[in-house]
Design brief:
With about 290 residues, this protein is α/β, with parallel strands linked by helices. It contains eleven helices and ten strands. The mean pLDDT is about 95.
């Protein structure tokens, strides 16, 4: 009888480690760097999809499509001219039109959650996206809060979660407002196993098999509105580039933290999430 393997300590991640891992060859054109779709937004919080979408492009993804409510699609298109803009179905329970289903299925990575502000609509939209057959889903914000009530088998095998501490507790089955069970490393590892997903939470990334990586840096300046959207977009961009899910999450967490360090060195506390986005390509170079 084989013994149960004891959890190992998180593996430290440095720029030198990432340089050894490398990134996929960018290829000859934007199609070679992958297609990203970001789904989210609301009239109250339209900025999340913009930050996430631009972050995906800033880490090297080739093409971006954004699905948002029809009430804000024109405004998002003006602010995010690099993206193809699509309106979500008028009702979240409605299926996507066949051309949109094909776009979702063909994307290399689909991010769901930034900017959504209604749990029921988020759940219905997530299920409609999943039914379109994407290869990989990255879930953030409200899409994490409703995940415990979603049948895991309806989602693709490729799943990445980017929770904060409160969302991590929900993913453990805790009530809203409760703290996580165990220390953070154990909790991240537990959620990765429960949901058969790669999980990125603060300075930790875990895969479903129990491997954990630790990323140092970032500082308190990362605790700013929109920072999580930037992280989720960066992770999605690396997935689309073909790094593999766990390495995409590690790359995303590292360049997010490194961008925070770079801005802290120049500005101190008080930089904005949009400034983190602009810093991402330079942070990627720091890993070389």
């Amino acid at each position: 009888m084989s013994r149960r393997q004891e959890p190992v300590d998180p593996e430290p991640v440095t720029g030198e480690v990432l340089a050894r891992w490398g990134l996929p060859d960018p290829g000859a054109d934007k199609k070679a760097r992958g297609d990203v779709i970001v789904v989210g937004g609301s009239r109250r919080t339209p900025g999340g999809v913009m930050l996430a979408g631009e972050a995906a492009l800033r880490v090297g993804a080739g093409r971006l499509g954004v699905f948002v409510p029809g009430s804000i699609d024109a405004q998002v298109g003006i602010v995010l001219p690099e993206a193809a803009i699509y309106a979500l179905p008028d009702r979240a329970t409605d299926p996507f039109e066949e051309p949109d289903r094909r776009k979702i299925a063909a994307a290399d990575a689909v991010l769901v959650g930034p900017g959504f502000d209604d749990a029921d609509e988020t759940r219905d939209t997530l299920l409609a996206i999943a039914d379109a057959g994407p290869a990989c889903l990255v879930l953030d914000a409200y899409a994490l809060g409703i995940l415990p009530g979603v049948d895991r088998d309806r989602l693709p095998d490729g799943l990445v979660l980017t929770p904060n501490r409160e969302e991590l507790a929900l993913l453990q089955g805790q009530a809203l407002g409760d703290d996580i069970e165990g220390d953070l490393t154990d909790a991240v590892r537990d959620v990765a196993r429960r949901h058969r997903a790669v999980v990125s939470c603060y300075d930790l990334v875990a895969d479903p098999e129990g491997a954990v990586w630790r990323i140092d840096g970032g500082g308190p300046g990362l605790a700013t509105s929109g920072s999580g959207d930037v992280l989720a977009g960066a992770v999605t961009g690396f997935v689309a580039r073909g790094t593999g899910l766990a390495r995409a999450a590690v790359w995303g967490a590292w360049v997010h933290a490194r961008s925070g360090d770079r801005l802290t060195e120049r500005m101190g506390l008080g930089f904005l999430a949009r400034e983190l986005v602009a810093e991402l390509p330079l942070a990627v170079l720091d890993a070389d």
